[in-house]
User: What shape does this take?
Amino acid sequence: MAVLPVLCLPHPVLKAVTRPVGVIDDAARALATDLLETMQASPACVGLAANQVGSTRRAFCVDVTGHKKAVSCHGAFVLFDPKLLVARAPQTAREGCMSVPDLTGNVARATEIVVAGTTPEGTERVIEADAFEARAILHELDHLDGFLFLDRVTSVGDVFQRVKYR
Assistant: This one.
């Protein structure tokens, strides 16, 4: 399909609440493919929400395969209309975001979660995740509700310039 440009702040679609996908049709499956291809083409990217590529649909992808902080790892997946069922054991850690390319921040997120959604094949999927994978999923869920990690930091002292490696 396509590697899409990722929107950055202050683009208004990043602060909008996404709308349900509902029926999984060809357009939804194309969105899933575009999300995965865009994520995979973006260095160090472990997740991407539909509104980050300009779609107002409730969908995201995640893949923490090979990440040093990952414990659980469900490989690359896309969920449509995801719902958070369980969230516990919050912990603060540093996050970054492709839509906020110059900053990182300390954010408290649950480290044990259960999320359910629909796959591009139209089946219901329940994912139990922990550690870094849980953080990545919650980060993407926030995007779908119009939140960025900057909305979750508790003070200006928890926001940092992103380190650029050569």
Summary: The chain has a mean pLDDT of 96. The first strand starts at residue 47 and ends at 49.
